[in-house]
Specification:
Elements: H1 2-16, H2 19-49, E1 52-58, E2 73-77, H3 82-90, E3 96-101, H4 105-108, E4 112-115, H5 121-142, H6 147-151, E5 162-164, E6 170-172, H7 175-209, H8 212-216, H9 222-260, H10 265-279, H11 282-293, H12 297-325, H13 329-349, H14 353-356, H15 361-366, H16 373-380, H17 387-415, H18 425-433
Length: about 425
């Protein structure tokens, strides 16, 4: 046990002390915050810079005056004919457009939009929306229908979704929050298992190619080395996750206090409440708060931690076996693909089958199979899963890890000392059957 602890300590400290680990840990939260801020700024800047100028040649004589300019588009009624307007448009440096409205617009429902460059999708859509409203208004008038009365008709159906609990009570429930959490967890667990599992494989390949492994196995047993490497790198992953959470929360709090400044908080909240009530968004925020209050985040985080550890240990043992059998990462591809296919399958199914039918036969069985349960069960948990299913799934996952470790260890003990030979499946089976 002391040797395993020594290996864990070595694997953990050698990676935590690296500059790359520190940079990844501290820069990733900043990178994502900067990425979102950059996307927001560039999108806003793009809309500001691409305000379209549209010259309207209205042959009906009554539509151009009803077209309204906005933040993205500016309408100007042209006094020139089409040929003269096109010639003037070609002499301009910035992007301009000509909207040609024919005399039979109300019958043909067709217009032409000429652009000096490639037509802007946003501009085209806004032009169409305004013309459709005007056309609809004209058709109402022709039919003798009061358009204002129709606009005041409220046909929106508001559905309050509730879930019947085991006690027979109905509590508020909404699948949109569950779907968002499920998708986020499936992506996170998929990337995490691959990221840290691949680190185990690369570490084994590196030690094997440098012949360091020959010195190490003279002091420890191969199984002790493999287990220590898996646990050590796993602790690196847990440390990185915890630091990311702490840094993200700290940055969010810091940003909140920065933007708050010296403004009185109570006064600010009061003003925001008045604005929300006027805009009709207060009910939406109240509904969202109610949905979030019904989500059991404690259960989700605990289960994420358990299934992340279990999934990582299972796949890391398999990755370690693959790393011991090959001499380079290029050769490892033929073995890693069959291993990772079940996890990839669960990841793909999480976007459709698992979310649409989280309590169905496929989702339930996938959550009990060790190779797919780290993703399948985490996708199902936000939708409400019985505790006995979670416990059984985790127990099977642990049993799968123990069995995979036993199989991987028998291959690992032989493979780490094999050089210059490309292994086949038959060769791996032979290594597994070797006696001590």
């Amino acid at each position: 046990m002391s040797k395993i602890l020594l290996i864990i300590q070595r694997e953990y400290l050698s990676r935590v002390k690296k500059k790359s680990f520190l940079l990844m840990t501290f820069l990733v939260p900043l990178f994502f915050i900067g990425l979102y801020a950059g996307v927001f700024f560039l999108t806003k800047k793009s809309f500001e810079d691409t305000k379209g100028l549209v010259y309207v040649i209205d042959q009906t004589g009554e539509i151009a005056s009803h077209l309204e300019s906005s933040d993205n588009i500016r309408f100007t009624e042209s006094t020139l004919d089409l040929d003269a307007q096109i010639k003037e448009m070609q002499d301009m440096d910035h992007s301009t457009n000509i909207l040609m409205i024919p005399t039979d617009f109300y019958q043909s429902q067709h217009v032409e939009l000429l652009s000096s460059g490639k037509p802007n999708i946003t501009l085209k859509s806004e032009v169409e929306n305004q013309l459709e409203d005007l056309l609809l208004e004209y058709q109402y008038t022709e039919l003798g229908i009061d358009s204002e009365t129709i606009r005041n008709i409220d046909s929106n159906v508001r559905t309050s979704t509730k879930e019947i609990t085991e006690t027979g009570e109905a509590k508020d429930s909404d699948t949109r929050i569950a779907m968002g959490i499920a998708m986020g967890l499936s992506i996170l667990i998929y990337l995490s298992v691959f990221l840290y599992g691949a680190q185990v494989m690369r570490g084994v390949i590196e030690e094997k190619s440098n012949r360091i492994i020959e010195v190490i196995v003279s002091s420890v047993r191969p199984f002790q080395l493999m287990l220590g490497k898996i646990v050590g790198i796993g602790l690196v992953g847990v440390t990185q996750f915890l630091l990311w959470v702490i840094l993200s929360v700290s940055l969010a709090a810091l940003a909140g206090s920065f933007f708050a400044g010296e403004i009185d908080v109570q006064q600010q909240l009061s003003q925001q409440q008045e604005i929300l009530e006027e805009s009709g968004s207060a009910g939406m925020i109240t509904e969202l708060s109610g949905m979030l209050a019904n989500v059991n985040f404690t259960e989700i985080f605990v289960c994420f931690f358990l299934f992340f550890i279990g999934g990582y240990l299972l796949y890391s043992a398999l990755f370690a076996a693959v790393g011991s059998a090959v001499d380079s990462e290029t050769e490892a591809n033929q073995f890693t693909m069959p291993i990772t296919m079940p996890l990839l399958l669960a990841y793909i199914l999480s976007f459709g089958v698992l979310i649409n039918d989280p309590h169905g036969t496929i989702a339930t069985w996938l959550s009990f199979i060790p190779l797919t349960s780290p993703i399948a069960m985490l996708v199902r948990i936000p939708f409400g899963v019985p505790v006995w299913q979670i416990a059984l799934s985790f127990a099977i996952l642990v049993a799968g890890f123990v069995f995979a470790t036993w199989v991987a260890a028998r291959i690992y003990r032989v493979g780490i000392l094999m050089y210059g030979k490309k292994p086949t499946l038959r060769e791996l089976i032979k290594w597994f059957n070797y006696k001590n």
